[in-house]
TrEMBL record:
It is a single-pass membrane protein; Single-pass type II membrane protein. It comes from Anolis carolinensis. This is Beta 3-glucosyltransferase. Keywords: Glycosyltransferase, Membrane, Signal-anchor, Transferase, Transmembrane, Transmembrane helix. One of its GO terms (biological process) is camera-type eye development. It is found in: Endomembrane system; Membrane.
Length: 484
């Protein structure tokens, strides 16, 4: 369905587009080129930060098709569109290892590499107009700017005197590198490999590498790169928008289909476990506390694995094996620390998008040694979600801890990497506290978890950020009756 009209030298083409179950109008403005400067569509290489899980594959393909449909309506050449998960590189999701390939393949005919997430919504004409304002011959780094309000552990307390001075991009809004900057980064990476073995907060670490201690470009804030919701009045000004809703693909997973394992130890029974019971334990149906000491008042289960000060690999593998041997074949296992705050009702909705028959390992993704053949893993503090099939394949592989105090999340990541099974990232899980993240970054999220009780009231954090709202409670009660 479309309408075309000419008014004051402007052709307005109104197209009704269906995308991801939402219907909205795109207004295409074909301005005279002597009035406005446009980037050429063929100058842009679109890179969708996709994942191999079937749910994410579908979303990435939908976004790719939407871009192609808009390009066809525009009547120009089809742009290059790359999906990160298809690039033959374990560390492709960390972006920087791809700079050499981008430089070699696209530096002659392209001007911009534009990155976006699966839920980023792109208005092609506005994007071309926006990029047309910038000098493509310069080394430019464009995006929606985020900053820390206070120095934070996930950024290694950098810029402690004034953390607001350093800007990094919100990937949800899309971000862009000019080809001259891509070529510079490719050359630098060839001569100067990445120094850190760990990838923790990718968007921050990329900005820090590009900044190069002040010798490289700062992030240039672009007002048209937005995380406004589609229904926001301000969205009309945006070249990009973002879907704010919690992913939800049907009926929430039943509580009886989610088993929750809480890792604890005797010294934390008195202070951390009461917090769990005051907050999110009531959302669960199947939950057990695993400790080095059996205490009936909680109750806790002694797995026979001595407590360790760090790592906890022996304990976690014992939990996984116990889950696999339970008589009831529960589809999902969630492993959390005793200082993790989590919304089970939101997790029920999120898991409706995943197939438990697939090997799924879900949470906040970190990386280790990805510049030199390392692996990705789900960081434990934010919660690790496993499908039963994933655990079955893990134990069939005989991959195990090399010591009880080895880092459990990293060993699990290494095992699944060896099996060729990717971990699945969700930015809704958080290894740190809410104040450790940019306010603008959290503003377009419906968070699933936070971690740590340092210098916060964890009960207050839970009820401010994670407690089910009225609708969630109604959904939970309906599915509780189904479980019963």
């Amino acid at each position: 369905m479309f309408l075309c009209t000419i008014c004051n030298g402007i052709l307005i083409h109104l197209t009704l587009i269906s995308f991801n179950y939402y219907y909205y109008y795109y207004y295409y403005y074909y301005y005279y080129y002597y009035l406005f400067s446009f980037a050429e569509l063929k100058e842009i290489v679109f890179v969708i930060q996709s994942q191999r899980n079937s749910f994410h594959l579908k979303k990435a393909e939908e976004l790719k098709q939407n871009i192609l449909n808009q390009a066809a309506d525009f009547g120009k050449e089809m742009p290059a569109i790359l999906l990160i998960h298809q690039m033959n590189n374990e560390g492709a999701w960390t972006i920087l290892p791809l700079m050499h390939e981008f430089s070699v393949t696209y530096s002659r005919n392209s001007s911009w590499i534009f990155f976006c997430e699966e839920d980023t919504r792109i208005h092609i004409i506005k994007l071309l107009k926006t990029l047309g304002r910038y000098d493509k011959s310069k080394e430019l780094f464009l995006g929606k700017a985020l900053h820390d309000d206070e120095s934070t552990i996930i950024h290694h307390y950098a810029f402690a005197e004034n953390p607001t001075v350093f800007k990094f991009p919100d990937f949800a809004a899309g971000w862009a590198l000019s080809i001259p900057l891509v070529k510079k980064l490719a050359k630098r990476l060839k001569n100067e490999p990445l120094k850190s073995d760990f990838t923790i907060d990718l968007k921050y670490e990329i900005a820090l590498y590009i900044w190069e201690k002040g010798n490289g470009p700062h992030l240039t804030p672009v007002p048209e790169f937005c995380t406004e919701d589609l229904d926001s009045p301000n969205a009309a000004l945006c070249a990009t928008t973002f879907l704010h809703l919690l992913p939800f693909c049907g009926d929430p997973v039943k509580k009886m289909d989610i088993f929750v394992a809480v890792k604890t130890c005797k010294k934390f029974h008195g202070d951390r476990i009461p917090i769990v019971k005051q907050t999110w334990e009531g959302e669960t149906t199947l939950i057990e506390y695993y400790s080095d000491f059996a205490e009936s008042s909680i109750p806790t289960v002694d797995l026979g694995v001595p407590n360790t000060e760090r790592g906890h690999c022996g304990k976690t593998f014992a939990i996984l094996e116990r889950f696999l041997n339970r008589p009831a074949a529960t589809p999902w296992l969630v492993v959390v620390d005793d200082d993790t705050l989590i919304s089970i009702s939101r997790l029920q909705k999120l898991l409706s998008c995943y197939e438990p028959s697939e090997p799924v390992i879900l949470g906040e993704r970190y990386g280790y040694g990805l510049g030199s053949g390392g692996y990705s893993y789900i960081t434990g503090g934010g919660g690790m979600v496993f499908s039963r099939e994933a655990i079955r394949r893990l134990f069939a592989s005989k991959c195990r801890c090399y010591s009880n105090d080895a880092p459990d999340d990293m060993v699990i990541g290494m095992c699944f990497s060896g099996l060729g099974i990717p971990v699945t990232h969700s930015p809704l899980f958080h290894q740190a506290r809410p104040m450790d993240y940019s306010k603008d970054y959290l503003s377009h999220q419906v968070p699933i978890s936070f971690h740590k009780h340092w210098n916060v009231d964890p009960v207050k954090v839970y009820f401010q950020w994670l407690s089910p709202n009225v609708r969630e409670l109604q959904d939970g009660n309906r599915h509780l009756r189904e479980d019963l």
